[in-house]
Write a structure and sequence with these properties.
- The chain contains eight helices and three strands.
- It has helices at 7-14, 22-26, 32-60, 64-74, 83-90, 94-106, 128-150, 155-175, and strands spanning 80-82, 110-114, 122-126.
- Strands 1-3-2 form a three-stranded antiparallel sheet.
- The longest helix has 29 residues, at 32-60.
Length: 195
């Protein structure tokens, strides 16, 4: 059932007659203000990521996830991070990251190797092509982010947005519904180094 359904419409949508099922009436349905906030947030969520992807693909040939991985690697002084660390930093599951890394490795953007410290883990390293890609993509991407996220908001609104995002993220994480990021490392190292 969509989150913006009101209590008045809930019985008909749920197939209830309305007399006898108290749990339907006890649900915390969204009021008019909450519904407007939810719909605005949903619209933002559904429009922002495709807009980011279109900008990156148009200007640099990178997808949003590829850019995120390259940016994460470029922020490390050695241009290298453990795959499990990258998954945690990005908030992604190991499986999602592993599939993406295979594609990025095939494109020559990153190299993967078994960690010398722990043969079960993988190190992800930025290649020269990957470093060039992020260096070329970053200025246009930052300008896009500034124009759609920061320029429309006052500094006070930016602070409020940051706090709202943190609170919503915390609620999502504590709900147990987000994809778990395991503490272990995604590893193909049993098959030998991949780079």
């Amino acid at each position: 059932m969509e989150a913006h359904v009101t209590s008045a419409g809930s019985a008909a949508i749920a197939g209830e007659s309305g007399d006898g099922d108290q749990s339907v009436n006890e649900r915390r349905w969204l009021d008019a203000r909450e519904r407007e906030v939810w719909l605005a947030l949903r619209h933002l969520l559904w429009s922002l990521q495709p807009a980011v992807d279109r900008q990156l693909l148009r200007d640099s040939g990178l997808s949003g996830p590829e850019y995120s991985v390259l940016a994460t690697l470029s922020e490390d002084p050695q241009g290298m991070v453990r795959s499990g660390t990258a998954a945690r930093m990005l908030g992604w599951g190991r499986s999602r990251l592993s599939h993406l890394l295979r594609r990025m490795e095939a494109k020559g953007l990153i190299a993967r190797s078994c960690s010398p410290d722990d043969g079960r883990g993988q190190d992800i390293a930025l290649t020269p092509a990957g470093r060039n890609a992020i260096v070329e993509a970053a200025p246009g991407h930052v300008e896009f982010v500034r124009s759609v996220v920061f320029d429309p908001l006052t500094p006070e609104q930016q602070d409020a947005l940051r706090e709202a995002c943190r609170r919503i993220s915390t609620a999502i994480e504590s709900s147990g519904t987000c994809e778990a990021v395991c503490d272990g490392e995604a590893s193909d190292c049993d098959e030998g180094p991949t780079a």
